[in-house]
Every structure is written in C-alpha cells, then in structure tokens.
Amino acid sequence: MSNMERDPQELRCAAETGGRGEVLTGREVPLGGPRAMRVSRTLPGVHRRMIGAWCFVDAFGPEPALMRVPPHPHTGLQTVTWLVAGEVLHRDSLGSLRRVRPGQLNLMTAGRGISHSEESPGTMLHGVQLWVALPDVHRRTAPTFEHHATLPVLTGPGFEATVIMGSLGGVTSPATAHSPLVGAEVAVDGAAEVPLDPAYEHGLLLLDGEVEQAGPGALRYLPPGPGTLRLSGRGRVLLIGGEPFAEEIVMWWNFVGRSHEEIAGFRAEWMDGVSSGLSTGFGTVEGFDGEPLPAPVLPSIRLKPRGRVR
Description:
Blueprint: E1 23-25, E2 27-31, E3 37-43, E4 54-64, E5 68-74, E6 77-85, E7 88-92, E8 97-100, E9 105-109, E10 114-119, E11 124-133, E12 144-148, E13 153-156, E14 159-168, E15 171-172, E16 181-195, E17 201-211, E18 218-222, E19 228-242, E20 250-252, E21 255-257, H1 260-276
Antiparallel strand pairs: 1-18, 2-3, 3-4, 4-11, 5-10, 6-9, 6-11, 7-8, 7-10, 9-12, 13-14, 14-15, 14-16, 16-19, 17-18, 17-19, 20-21
Family: Belongs to the pirin family.
InterPro entries: Pirin (IPR012093), Pirin_C_dom (IPR008778), Pirin_N_dom (IPR003829), RmlC-like_jellyroll (IPR014710), RmlC_Cupin_sf (IPR011051)
Domain Pirin C-terminal: 198-273
C-alpha cells in the first residue's frame, strides 16, 4: 500500500520506551482524492512509531470500497496484506500478479527497491495493510514477492490463531521474516490465554466482534514482559510484535532509509523514471491501467533518523 498523503511529513521513529497500557488512536487518512478509500492509521503514532519491526498499520472497512493505488515505489521494508473480507489484486515490477483473499497472505519484500500497484473490485473490503522495517543487514536485498494461500494455526482453550508472520507459541509461518517478530489473527471465543514471547513488545488491534482488551479504531501497546495475553469476548484481533527494533530509521512517503540523502536519492530515482517513462531501479509495473504515482515534494526541513518512540 502507498502512503498517498499529498504532503507527507517525516515519520519520526523516536527515542525512549515505556508507557504501559498505551492506546494508539488511529487517524483517518484518504488513499487518493475526494472519493478515495479511507483508512485508520495507528502506526506510526504521535509518540510510538514502531512495535518490534512493525512500522506502519493501516486498517480499512468493513465497507464497500474501491481500492485503486497506482504503481508506486518502496525501499527498505516489507508490505503485508491481510484481509478479513473482499479481495485485492497485486501487481509488481517483478511480474507478480496475485489476488489475495481472506486467510491468505501477500508479502512483498522491497529490499533495495520495487514498485507495485493494488486494486479491489469495489465490493465489501475489510482488512489491514502493514509495513515491516528491514534491518540494515537485509535492507539492500533483492526484492521478492510471496503469496501464502494457507498458514499454520495455533489453537488453545478459547482461541484459534492464524500465524501470519514469525512465530507464536511454537507455530511458525512459512513467510520470510528478517527480524524476530510475530503477526497473527486471533479468533477469540470466550476466555483465552495466548502465549507471548516475553522478549517481544506487542500491539493488539480489533478486527471484528467484541474483545474486552481491544477497542475499535485503536492499537493497544503491550510492553515486553508477560508470557501470556489474556483475552475475553467473541471476535477477532490482530496481534503484532517483535523484539524492540534497535536501529534508527528515516520513514518518508513510501521509503524506509537511514538518512536524508538516501531518501532524497530514492525520490529522485523514482521521479526520473516517472518523467522519462523508462524503467529505473524500481522496475515497471505492467498491466495497470493508469500512470504511476508521482512522489510528493520533500519537506523543507532535513529528515533525521530516529529510534522507536518519541
């Protein structure tokens, strides 16, 4: 997914941990013009910018919505598409063409650079799109795309968890992860105790139904320490987490980098390709009916690398 804000600010991932019981309230962001689909963005937040390596969380629906995101670039991250209802068609510069439906995972690793587009048929759409920041040792890797039609499930009294990324309770997703993390959809029916890695910080987002520990439109932050998560109610939640990300990063528009100069270079390279119509290091998305998305103008202030929280 693209960050289609016309004037994106530096997404600072800043210092100091702490804040037990934090609730990150989502802000509404339009994906495109006046008739665009709207999403609730909980990461990055005003104070907390990352949970583990997870650095971007957009939730959308349930509502009839037309997703039409033109070809746009990414660097230094993975995109994760997870649906509760509907379908999204993914195209990318590697030649991938894949529809993702509920219970399936589309995972794109941008590495040193990739471009892609996303479309939905305009019917009911409900889901989440997330970014995972790549650690420095992996962020220049060759871009890849994975589609996982089936994923492993962890079951316990009162819950069933589909493991999307990483590991939960000894169950590991086949999706490629480049840092210690977890992503899971947890279906709750009654009272449940879900095992957690005590070295991880976690986030909890309500997808549907009523689960006492998760509210609508907000991401609840859980600091490292507990080995279990007690949930009660009936519904589904998204659980994300990972080891606290130690590196400072720069997030701006659709890029994750390490310096102002690097981000400016990514933007210039993308815009050279947009203006010339020629393939760049981001490649070309074939088959999309429309022009690629121009990059916004860089802010007048210098972009600075930051840590996880402000």
